[in-house]
Amino acid sequence: MARKSADSIWSSVCQQTLRKEINPLTFNTWFTNAKPYLSSERTFGLAVPNEIAMEYIGQHREQIEFALRDATRIHYDLEIAVRPDGSIPSKEELERQYDATFNGNGSFQIGRLNPDYSFSTFIVGSSNSFAHAASVAVASMESPGNYNPLFLYGGSGLGKTHLMHAIGNQVRRDFPNKRVVYVQSEQFVNEFITCIQKNDFEAFRNHYRLADMLLIDDIQFIESKERMQVEFFYTFNALYESGKNIILTCDKPPQSLAALTDRLRTRFISGLTIDIQPPDYETRIAILKNLCRSHGVDIEPDVIEYIASNITSNVREIEGAFKTISALQT
């Protein structure tokens, strides 16, 4: 019955709203293969075949949640699950997922930092030099209050996550006694939903409020979630007043987070807010040459110049073009 209800809701949302508002190519490529399910009374799930689909659909999270609210009058939180076999999570899997949020000690698992994201692998250019310098300063832990919170914002694929992971990796290496907690905003929200379902918030609060450094990626996902904002407000205050570092990434500046409460917005603005712009031509060339060196691939200079001249929006697309050319050469 829940499966039928999820199908009915998703069909209505797609036909009445999403198909009209989202670019047809994007909708047909990523949305038509998503399979809906109800994860809980307040969580609407979409099962997608791969992480690329999850990323593209995730970019429309707020739009989907508003459409769900209009169609059902229920404030659903969107959950996206990667299911390569085309299935949807069973009731037993969802129950295990909620239980797995906690480890054996009743506390939350610490998110995994990508070891490949370091300051040495980050290509610095005019569009990101200030963000890089500030991130290096934060990672040094010399004056933790100077850049607190550090708020990095910009479009997708410009290096915000790379710098965040580089900060976390360096602090964990240079200050092993410091407790660094990294989490993606989606995971943060899902953990909070689990706490609501269990009516147990102690482990959640201890996990985040006892950190020496808290890194939250894509903080914009809490924008339309009122209870989550209240919880994060108190977490932010607990860390800030204790002199702990807070690093946030977002796809827009704090002033543009219209659905964010004023008290959170002013706290985000109170630290160092840095805009990361798309890389210039010279930086794009440097990124491609660095990719060639690190992967042991030789690409003709004119091909590198062609890619750098035609792909200008973000680093991720440049990396995708490089991988395509590399695959064609093997």
Main β-sheet, spatial strand arrangement = 5-6-7-4-8
Total beta-strand segments: 8
Beta-strand proportion: 5-15%
The CATH superfamily label of the largest domain reads P-loop containing nucleotide triphosphate hydrolases
Structural class: alpha/beta
Low-confidence stretches: 98-107
What number is the mean pLDDT? Answer: 85
Helix proportion range: 40-55%
Looking at the structure, the CATH topology of the largest domain is: Rossmann fold
Q: Please write the CATH class name of the largest domain.
A: Alpha Beta
Can you tell me the number of structural domains? Answer: 3
> Secondary-structure element order, as H and E?
HHEEHHEHHEHEHHEHEHEHHH
CATH architecture descriptor text of the largest domain: 3-Layer(aba) Sandwich
Major pleated sheet? 5 strands, parallel
Question: What distance lies between the first and last C-alpha atoms, to the nearest angstrom?
Answer: 50 Å
User: What is the 3D form?
Assistant: globular
Supply the number of helical segments. Answer: 14
State Rg. Answer: 21 Å
Structural account:
With 330 residues, the chain is of the alpha/beta class. The chain has three domains: 2-86, GMP Synthetase, Chain A, domain 3 (2-Layer Sandwich), CATH 3.30.300; 129-275, P-loop containing nucleotide triphosphate hydrolases (Rossmann fold, 3-Layer(aba) Sandwich); 281-329, Helicase, Ruva Protein, domain 3. The chain has helices at 2-21, 24-31, 51-58, 61-72, 91-100, 129-140, 160-174, 185-198, 202-209, 226-241, 262-269, 281-295, 301-310, 315-329; strands at 35-40, 43-48, 77-82, 150-153, 180-184, 213-217, 245-250, 272-275. α6 runs parallel beside α7, α12 crosses α13 (301-310) and α12 (281-295) packs across α14.
